[in-house]
Amino acid sequence: VHVSDSSSCLHGMRCGDGNCVWDSEWCDGVKNCPAGQDEANCVRVRGSNFLLEVYWTETKEWRQVCSEGWSDQQGKASCHDIGYTRDTYFQSGHQRTDSNRGFLSVKLSFNPQSSILQQLTQRLELIKRNSSEASGSQLASVGSWPWQVSLHVAGSHRCGGAIISPRWLITAAHCVSRTSSPADWAVYVGIVDPLGPVFNPAHAVSEIITHEGYNSQTQQNDVALMKLSDPLNTKASSKIRPVCLPNAGLNMTDPGKSWVTYYGPTANRGENSSSLYLKEAPVSLIPSAECNSSEAYSGRISQEMLCATKIEAGATMCNPDSGGPLVSHMDGLWWLMGEGVWGEHCNGQNKPGVYTSIRHHLDWIYYQMQVKMTC
């Protein structure tokens, strides 16, 4: 609601061009001022501890900024965006706080002349996705799943996979069994939206190890490792980071909500239908007995497989991508529980998705990594 009185803003805040908007419209993720001044500098301090908060337009909420990697330059930039001069910055030390909304972290690359709003990224490991989110698949934000990789053959996306160390990736055996030469593969990390030739650089593969017990008929032991020619620099970007392997002894009785990520087309972006985007969907793990019922897979699910289904009945979720990770959030960390094998719900049969259990293959994974260790 705009106030016609150009001399004052008794019922709101001034845009800067004579128009006024209500207080509630300032920093709400919607540009109400003609020039967008109401959303241009959404930085504030909160509470008696003066905790720095930034309005994050992607989630439409205020989020606190984590002190990790913080410098005096970022502090001065924050003061400037609030309205103070850079000389008024005073470092008072770190403050402890809990937030159920997640945090923001400063990027490694920093331009002291830019707004602090352009220097931040979501801190993934502290974000807890709540149950009010859409239960069907949705587009993932750039860098939100930093272990996700795209595996290419002849310039086209073939399968998904996950980073488990700077040198090693994990994917499905059926993805690589027919194209087993490392020279035929290129790996792309640090997800870009949409998936396409803008990736830079491509990472070469030095070795592919397919589980010796892989059976293409039963999908038994459908797991493979890829070793990169050169290690990834996981410290250079928050968009490239390994996911944790599910350690022995990890309490898996209540993994909470799990997530699958995969590449697929979208009809809502005005893009060519062949364009692939990273998509995400919340799922829940279901017991093997239920997955082996006559209504589902009639005994085809072995002890080395996991089944997961969409959270709510009627939610649209089809995962046509192979090798993509199934992850769960526990104890503040993301754990790689499985990688995609098949899912007949894509054929309209509404059956659970099937994943190779990473925990079942831990010994095999560690053995291969030890044998092929680079001295």
Characterise this structure.
The chain is mainly β and 375 residues long. It folds into two domains: 41-126, Roll (Mac-2 Binding Protein); 130-375, Thrombin, subunit H (Beta Barrel), CATH 2.40.10.10. The chain has helices at 72-82, 173-176, 288-291, 362-371; strands spanning 13-14, 20-21, 43-46, 51-56, 61-65, 103-106, 120-123, 138-139, 148-153, 156-163, 168-171, 185-188, 203-210, 224-228, 258-264, 277-286, 305-310, 325-330, 333-343, 353-357. Strands 15-16-17-20-19-18 form a six-stranded antiparallel beta barrel. A hairpin with a 2-residue loop joins strand 9 (148-153) and strand 10. It is elongated and about 70 Å long. GO terms for molecular function: serine-type endopeptidase activity. Residues 134-370 form the Peptidase S1 domain. It comes from Cyprinodon variegatus. Residues 52-83 form the SRCR domain. Keywords: Disulfide bond, Hydrolase, Protease, Serine protease.
Name the descriptors:
single chain; about 375 residues; mainly beta; Mac-2 Binding Protein; Thrombin, subunit H; 6-stranded antiparallel beta barrel; 6-stranded antiparallel β-barrel; 4 helices; 20 strands; elongated
Structural class: mainly beta
Mean pLDDT: 76
Tell me the number of strands. Answer: 20
Report strand %. Answer: 25-35%
Q: Provide the gyration radius in Å.
A: 24 Å
Share of residues in helices: under 10%
GO molecular function, one term: serine-type endopeptidase activity
Protein name: Transmembrane serine protease 2
Pfam family, one: Trypsin
Keywords: Disulfide bond, Hydrolase, Protease, Serine protease
